[in-house]
Every structure is written in structure tokens, then in C-alpha cells.
Design a protein that fits this description.
The chain is mainly α. Helices cover 46% and strands 0% of the residues. It has 3 helices and no strands. It has helices at residues 13-20, 38-50, 59-70. The longest helix is centred in the middle third of the chain and has 13 residues, at 38-50. It starts with 12 loop residues before the first helix and ends with a helix.
């Protein structure tokens, strides 16, 4: 037997899974705990699209700000 990982569009998922169920000796393991909801993916993409370059800071600067705020 072989194992593979695939990525498919959300709107095709049910059709694809139903197709696989008819193949003998196929097991389907859904790992839903690592799945990022579509609404959250869309929100992040929208924020990236609307972000300005001056809004970004380096990791070091961010780490320093957090340390100052939380490690007083």
C-alpha cells in the first residue's frame, strides 16, 4: 500500500471523499485539528492585501516590545 497527502479545493472535498469510499482497502484519516477555517484564511489574506509596508516591524523589535510589556 501507498500513502499520499493531497490538497483539494473545499468545494470539491465531499465529492472526492465520496469517490474514495468506493475503493477497496482505502482508509481516510481526516486531520481536522490542524485545519485552518476558510473564514480565517480569507481574513488573513484580506489583512495582508490591505497592509502597508510601514505597518511591519522586525521580529527583534516585536520581541523587544513584548518583553517590555509583559516582563515588567
Amino acid at each position: 500500500m501507498r500513502q499520499l497527502t493531497i490538497t483539494i479545493p473545499d468545494d470539491f472535498y465531499d465529492t472526492f471523499i465520496n469517490f474514495l469510499k468506493y475503493i477497496p482497502n482505502v482508509s481516510i484519516d481526516e486531520n481536522l485539528e490542524d485545519e485552518i477555517p476558510l473564514w480565517q484564511q480569507e481574513m488573513v489574506l484580506e489583512r495582508i492585501k490591505n497592509a502597508n509596508l510601514e505597518d511591519y516591524i522586525s521580529w527583534e523589535e516585536s520581541k523587544n516590545k513584548m518583553s517590555k510589556k509583559w516582563l515588567k
